[in-house]
Amino acid sequence: MARNVSVAGQKFAAIRRERYLTQEEFAQRLAMSAANVRRIEQSDTSGMHFKNLRRLATLVKTSPKQLLEQIGVADEASTDGAPSNGDCDFPRGIAEDSLMPVTEIEHFHGVSATRTEDRTAVRRAAIVVPQGTDRRFSVTIDGDCMEPKYQHGQIVVFSIDAAEREGIIDGRNYFIQFVDGDNTFKRIFLDPENRESLLLKCWNEKYPPRTVERSSIKLLARAMHKFVMDEAC
Question: Where do the DSSP E strands lie in 4-91?
Answer without folding.
Answer: 4-8, 45-49
